[in-house]
Amino acid sequence: MLFKFFRLTFVFLIILAAMIVANAQSITPDASTSNGKTNSNKEDLPKNIKESLAKSRIEKEKKEYEELLQRSKEALKITEELEKSFSQNNQLSVEDQKKLDRLEKLAKKIRKELGGDADEESEKKDNLYSMQSALEILQNNSIKLLDELKKATRYTVSVIAIQSSNALIKAVRFLRFSKN
Q1: Can you say how many angstroms the Cα of residue 130 is from the centroid of all Cα atoms in its chain?
Q2: Secondary structure in 3-state letters for the chain
Q3: What's the pLDDT tens digit per position in 110-158?
Q4: Are 143 and 76 a contacting pair, CB within 8 Å?
Q5: Is 0.70 topped by the overall pTM?
């Protein structure tokens, strides 16, 4: 009798566990999303929400493009200041070194936003011989970069702008580490 009772209890527990597992599977949220809700397509959204999302995306792209132009203008201003300082003192001061650091950061950020990467080939083949030539390269490439960004739209990627930013970075590094 005791054996039948344990067997009946065991069968009851197995059925109860199966029911719990089956119920849990139907209640469990979709694991493909972080909030447990099913992923809704953009087609499911009302028209006014789609328009609002599109407008905010366009505004964000415009803002990013304007910031890119501002960085390029700032880079040109810094190169002009560096060239003026070097022509007056025939060397770069500690303040000019800080400007070079800022210029390198700007050029890297511009290059990154354009989708560019470091150009190892141009770093190997171009040799800068003097600080004056490096400053001229800074000035020319800053102007070229700004002109190219002004010509481009926020939808384009300019290879010339990426190459100009790489040349800027290379010239900055030469100026920062040269003893001329």
Answers
A1: 33
A2: CHHHHHHHHHHHHHHHHHHHHHHHHHHCCCCCCCCCCCCCCHHHCCHHHHHHHHHHHHHHHHHHHHHHHHHHHHHHHHHHHHHHHHHHHCCCCHHHHHHHHHHHHHHHHHHHHCCCCCCHHHHHHCCCCCHHHHHHHHHHHHHHHHHHHHHCCCCCCCHHHHHHHHHHHHHHHHHHHCCC
A3: 888 888 887 665 554 456 678 888 888 888 888 888 888 888 777 777 7
A4: yes
A5: no
